[in-house]
Amino acid sequence: MTGVTDIRAQIDALPGLDPRAPLLHVEDLHVEFRTRDGVAKAVNGASFHLSAGETLAILGESGCGKSVTAQAVMGILDTPPAHITNGTVRYRGVDLLGLSEQERRKVRANRIAMIFQDALSALNPVYTVGFQLGELFRKHRGLSRKDAKRRAVESLDQVRIPAAGQRINDYPHQFSGGMRQRVMIAMALALDPEVLIADEPTTALDVTVQAQIMRLLAELQRQRTMGLILITHDMGVVADVADRVSVMYAGKVVEEAPVYDIYGRPAHPYTQALLASIPRLDLKGRPLNVIRGLPPALTDIPSGCAFHPRCGYAREICRQEQPPAYRIAPHRESRCHFIREVLGV
Amino acid sequence: MFRFIVRRLLQMVLTFFGATFLVYALMFAAQSDPIQALVGERPITDSQRAALTERYHLNDSFLQQYWYYVKGLLTGDLGTSLTGRRISDMLADAWPVTLRLSLMAIIFAATIAIVAGVVSGIRRGSIFDNATLFVTLIVLAMPIVVLAPLAQLIFGIKLGWFPPTAGRDATLYQLLLPAAVLASLVVATELRVTRASVAENMRADYVRTARAKALTRSRVIGVHVLRNSLIPVVTLIGVDIGGLMSGAIVTEKVFNIPGVGFNLFRGIRTEDGPLVVGFVSFLVIVFLVVNLLVDLLYAVLDPRIRYE
Questions:
Q1: What's the mean pLDDT in A5-21?
Q2: A132 lies in a domain?
Q3: Which single residue of A53, A246, A311, B91 has CA 20 to 30 Å from A193?
């Protein structure tokens, strides 16, 4: 058996690893949940890529497949009921979906890490924060309990938790919401990953704390030139930190664009509708714009373009044919039959 | 923590007086002529009767009698049984037997319940899970008055694998069969609680986090899920220990084990008031102490519980 200390060397020996290949490349990912009540198609062809130092926001309503996509990339979906039926996930050229669970574990947390929405339930309530952090150093770096504890304190210092040396012995419930999310971040970054997936990292927090956490994330990302995937439904957060945006609807990326273009000239009716539904001060007193209807049930996704029942541009072709990805500009794609109309050209 | 223990001890005092008072009152109401019960079939002269009445304070009011009794208890004197033996001596004989039997039973039950419960909690819906569901249902449905003689007949007499009875100085081997029968009283519930608890914790968010930390499956289950799952199970086992230690009347009777339950049964049948009250008072203390220990253990397992 090989020791745990040389795990980094083991990662370098993974089949197909090429340091010059894109950091993360997800292509045509399909995930479905097979349950007794039927098959729920949670992800239906998600594609995106991420480079070092870049922030990609994945934007969409609840239940559009954002979190499932993230968990598929991490390899922590429960199978069954979840099954990845198609697609590839490549980390620096390594096809992650083709790896054994044992090899996959070397990439997970070491190279691609994840933070979750609700840190209170995402941390184990019966172990101290120091134990849960130290565990990473002990199991992946082969450190002794004492050294692991020292590293755990350093990790908490990095996310600016005051008096880290004492707080290391506290349990998750003894932290405030914001501090707890900092612990979560410290845990995800403990092993210096190259990719961090943040699944709604600030949704459970107060607005002021949200801003602090986002600033901290952005700063840590800059220090480490780490790729960040930010999963969110908050357009405000996206505007502040993202470089590029992928908009997901019913398990598919319907539009991908640099953040500036998304706000300036959305190229998909769904993105347009999302932007129109942001409350604005200059429209005070008037009813909010809402997207009429509900997102489709994942067990019964509409034919053709999944957005057609809620779309103002929809015509017969939208019910029949799935729109292909139209390339509008470099790094800009949209899946809509009437893209010219939407863009107004 | 200290304040919690003090508060619990005060509660124990109240519970103790409440329980002994109730038992004493019940015995007092049930006995018709304790002196006749004492001397049995033989005739008794008036002077003897007067002497005994004087000695046992039988002419005093109920409350006075209860007071004499409590006074004796507090000075460590449980009184004398109607058979003439000191109750503390009888307890000293019976208690170790019951203690050994109940500890064996609880070790059997807890081991089976936790191992099988964890496995079926992880593999919900598997053949193993369904098989344990089936077996636990049967065990739950079978009353001990059926199970104990049946086990004695089959394993003790027909197959002869185990000694059919265990006497006063029973070896561990002799106690195996009665302990297994006693364990069946509690194993099914403990197993179902373990299974439900594990199944629930497997779906918890922190398990997803543990997997995102690239921990091995055995560590995720053995370290993260297990400790959380065992919290309700430990409480249940603690209550069961208290219950089993307070004597297994049927099992001890069937296997002829002269433990606490065995003596208690005889005491009730012969209307031996002092014996019953004395034993029950002691059992109340055992039960209370075990429950206090369980509550403290609960705090060790679950740091969210603060005893302030």
A1: 73
A2: no
A3: A246
Q: Which domain holds residue A307?
A: 7-111+193-343
Residue range A267-299, pLDDT digits in tens: 888 888 888 877 777 777 777 777 777 888 888
Q: Is residue B251 part of a domain?
A: yes
Phi-psi region of A272 (alpha: psi -120 to 50; beta: other; left: phi over 0): alpha
Whether residues B144 and B50 share a domain: the answer is no
The verdict on B148 and B52 lying in the same domain is: no
- Say if B307 falls within a structural domain: no
Angstrom distance (rounded) from CA A134 to CA A139: 9
Question: For residues A45 and A253, what is the distance between their CA atoms, to the nearest angstrom?
Answer: 7
Number of domains observed in the structure of chain B: 2
What are the residues facing B142 on neighbouring strands? none
Interface test with A, best of B126, B202, B211 (most A CBs within 10 A): B211
Query: Does residue B237 sit in the same domain as residue B129?
Result: yes
How sure is the predictor about B2, in pLDDT bands with cuts at 50, 70 and 90?
A: confident
Tens digits of residue pLDDT in B45-82: 778 777 777 777 777 778 888 888 888 877 877 777 77
- Closest by CA position to B232, among listed B270, B191, B260, B288: B191
Q: Among partner residues A105, A121, A128, which is closest to B205 by beta-carbon distance?
A: A121
**Listed residue (B105, B186, B104) closest to B140, CA to CA:** B186
Residues of chain B in contact with residue A184, where contact means CB-CB under 8 angstroms, are: 209
Domain containing residue A211: CATH number? 3.40.50.300
CA–CA dist B39, B55 (Å, integer): 14
State the distance between the two ends of chain A, measured CA to CA, in whole angstroms.
63
- Tell me which residues of chain B, numbers 219 to 258, contact chain A at a CB-CB cutoff of 8 Å: 219, 224, 227-228, 231
Q: What is the pLDDT of residues B189-210, one digit of tens each?
A: 999 999 999 999 998 889 999 9
What is the rounded average pLDDT of the residues A146-166? Answer: 88
Whether pLDDT at A6 is above 70: no
pLDDT score, position A5: 54
Judgement on whether residues B181 and B282 belong to the same structural domain of the protein: yes
Mean local confidence (pLDDT), A199-222: 85
Same domain, B220 and B256: yes
CA distance A259 to A239: 7
Strands A55-59 and A244-249: parallel
B179 and B64 inside one domain: no
CB contact under 8 A, A125 and B303: yes
pTM of the model: 0.81
CATH code assigned at B152:
1.10.3720.10
Give the neighbor-by-neighbor strand order of the sheet with A252-258. Answer: A112-115, A195-199, A227-232, A55-59, A244-249, A252-258, A332-334, A326-329
- Range in A58-67, A126-135, A223-232, B267-276 the model is least confident about: B267-276
Owning domain of residue B289: 96-301
Could you give the CA distance from residue B270 to residue A55 in angstroms, rounded to a whole number? 84
